[in-house]
Write a structure and sequence with these properties.
Elements lengths: L5 H4 L5 H10 L6 H11 L4 E4 L6 H11 L10 E4 L3 H14 L8 E4 L5 H9 L4 E4 L1 H10 L9 E4 L2 H6 L3 H9 L6 E6 L4 H10 L4 E4 L10 E7 L5 H11 L4 E5 L3 H13 L4 E4 L5 H12 L5 E4 L1 H4 L7 E6 L6 H8 L9 E7 L4 H11 L4 E2 L5 H18 L7 H13 L4 H13 L8 H11 L16 H6 L16 E6 L9 H11 L10 E3 L4 E6 L4 H9 L1 E2 L2 E2 L3 E2 L40
């Protein structure tokens, strides 16, 4: 054990966890870790206010791991998270921190995944269960999850769970845990509803409030590309071809991704190497040395493998997979802009990751501008310049005497034009790989994304009775508030008030399953047996299929394009036998708010 973990050792953590922290390269605890870990080790409840990126995952994971009884094969710690991505991240953190604690099992349960694999994990008796509220409720109702032995419950990003409509479910789950359990609640903000949860379920909590002071180098220009219409590998290739860079670091989330992305870039002609924890230390050092000496252009790395890496010639950092916390983001982009140089940082952002982007901007107090993906024409212009440069560099009369003699012999023996012969030599230089991208195909794709509104308008609906027009939502979607340039499409879901559906349930399910920031979810109208929702145009078919299968209130959404002509008067879709269901006036039904219904997470 080295001195690098003395900071954590002073907090009272056991040797097995300290060893894992040293392996992972952790040195000093963050403020929220230093303030939370001792109290959680003592069994106290903790109420923490901290932004994403302050290290709160380790703040609750490390002390609760220390209190975990590995010989007891039943759930002892329950972590509730708002999204499946966060649930996965917390579960992975538990595995990393417990790598030297034999017998610790962790199961992640969340919507959008099949029950079979989750049931198999739960049957093994994991000590940790990390999940989203809707799926945890499903397992409790099915009897596949037993909370009788729970010693601690963690509510991670409680304000986000409130925003997504899960707070009633959180209360319901807490009521099904033992009375003598420890509770840790972490939230970036403390709205009234979260305060009520704390007052109801926490006992004399230790309050921890952390202000983020993370800043980034002013010499680093930060941009992001919104992942849409192209694969990340294609986007990375285009950026590498158009941007003028000296050396580049590409950060990914997994070891496998380092290999796959590096292989792809190598196939495209770039001098690129992976860097991950499975690569022997000697080979990692060799790759970094090559990067320093200009023998490599790009390194694709995980956070752990790149820890402590310092190469002045790195001009660009690409967050191929954006990290889940601000601190990691700041550490990553800090690889560029060294020694007073200017640096470039570009992040690839998916829909659901817009929230992380906002957290980073808030914590670093810097705006991250959106960038367009370089077009095929942009790439082709650069390729043309480079190819012509290669030809000019190769014009060396003294060194090329032998080739000149061969060309002169060909011209004497065959009636060839000298320019045709030079063209053939250039083609041999390029080989079978196409020199240019298809600009027409690229333009067609762009036009489809930017086609005018009139091309997307639906045909006029047929004549209906006055009563029918008033009873049903309009066919056309409403403009997205504050973002009128975002085209919307109106969809119908096969769940309504009669099923106990609330707007928060629908927003939470769609945002989570579609990886879509909730601000892009438009108008929602809930009727008796169905509802309508406005979503951005151009969503991938696989995402729409996922939403079609997603379950809310115990039923599949059955998402499909909305057509009022296929909905009978009164707002009720026909039953399978072709008969209308009973009328309920306006189609609404009162329901008990204290009895949450099953929903997707």
């Amino acid at each position: 054990m080295t001195d690098t973990t003395t900071g954590f050792a002073s907090l009272g953590l056991p040797f097995s966890i300290l060893r894992a922290l040293e392996t992972l390269g952790y040195e000093e605890p963050s403020p929220i870790q230093a303030d939370s870990i001792p109290s959680l080790l003592e069994g106290r409840d903790v109420l923490g206010m901290a932004q994403t990126g302050t290290g709160k995952t380790a703040a609750f994971t490390l002390p609760l791991l220390a209190r975990t009884q590995t010989e007891q094969p039943s759930p002892q710690v329950l972590v509730l998270a708002p999204t499946r991505e966060l649930a996965q991240q917390v579960a992975q953190a538990v595995k990393s921190y417990s790598q030297y604690m034999p017998g610790v099992g962790v199961s992640a349960v969340y919507g959008g995944a099949d029950y079979g694999s989750q049931l198999r994990e739960l049957k093994r008796g994991p000590q940790w269960v990390v999940g989203t509220p809707g799926r945890v409720m499903d397992h409790l109702r099915r009897g596949t999850l037993n909370l009788a032995d729970i010693k601690a419950v963690v509510l991670d990003e409680a304000d986000e769970m409130l925003r997504m409509g899960f707070i009633d479910d959180v209360n319901w789950i807490l009521e099904h845990t033992p009375r003598q359990r420890q509770v840790a609640l972490f939230s970036a903000t403390m709205p009234r509803e979260i305060q009520q949860v704390a007052e109801t379920h926490l006992k004399d909590p230790v309050q921890v409030k952390i202000k983020t002071k993370t800043t980034t180098n002013a010499n680093i220009r930060q941009r992001y590309w919104f992942v849409a219409g192209a694969h990340k590998n294609d986007a990375l290739l285009r950026i590498c071809e158009v941007e003028d860079f000296d050396a580049m670091m590409v950060f990914v989330r997994t070891k496998q991704a380092t290999e796959e992305v590096a292989e792809y870039m190598q196939a495209q002609g770039f001098r690129c190497a992976p860097l991950n924890g499975d690569i022997p230390q000697q080979l990692r050092e060799k790759a970094v040395d090559k990067l320093k000496r200009g023998q490599l252009d790009i390194i694709v790395a995980t956070d752990v493998a790149a820890r402590g890496l310092d190469v002045e010639r790195i001009s660009h950092v690409i967050n191929y997979d954006i990290p889940s916390d601000t601190e990691s983001y700041v550490h990553r982009i800090g690889r560029t802009g060294r020694a007073g140089r200017d640096g470039e940082a570009i992040a690839f952002i998916r829909g659901r990751e817009k929230r992380l982007l906002r957290d980073i901007e808030k914590a670093t107090r810097q705006t991250i501008a959106e960038m367009p993906l370089p077009t095929a024409k942009d790439v082709n212009d650069k390729r043309r310049q480079r190819f012509m440069g290669r030809l000019m560099d190769a014009v060396k009369p003294e060194q090329n005497k032998l080739y000149r003699e061969m060309i002169e012999e060909l011209l004497r023996e065959h009636p060839l034009d000298a320019l045709d012969l030079a063209t053939a030599a250039a083609a041999l230089l390029q080989g079978n790989k196409p020199l240019f991208l298809d600009e027409k195909a690229d333009q067609r794709m762009q036009e489809r994304r930017e086609r005018p509104e009139r091309d997307r308008e639906r045909p006029e609906r047929g004549e209906r009775g006055e009563r029918g027009r008033k009873a049903l939502p309009e066919a056309q979607p409403k403009p997205l508030k504050g973002m009128k340039d975002v085209d919307m499409v109106r969809y119908q879901v096969a769940i309504g008030y009669d099923d106990g559906l609330r707007p928060g349930n629908l927003v939470g399910a769609v945002a989570n399953e579609a990886e879509l920031d909730s601000k892009y979810i438009g108008h929602i109208e809930i009727l008796g047996q169905f509802s309508v929702i406005d979503l951005p145009a151009g969503m991938p078919p696989e995402t729409l299929q996922t939403l079609k299968r997603a379950r809310v209130c115990g039923k599949a959404l059955g998402l499909k394009a909305y057509n009022p002509e296929q909905v009978p008067e009164g707002g009720r879709p026909p039953r399978r036998d072709g008969n209308k269901g009973p009328r309920r006036g306006d189609g609404q039904k009162k329901f008990n708010r204290n009895k949450p219904r099953r929903q997707a997470s």
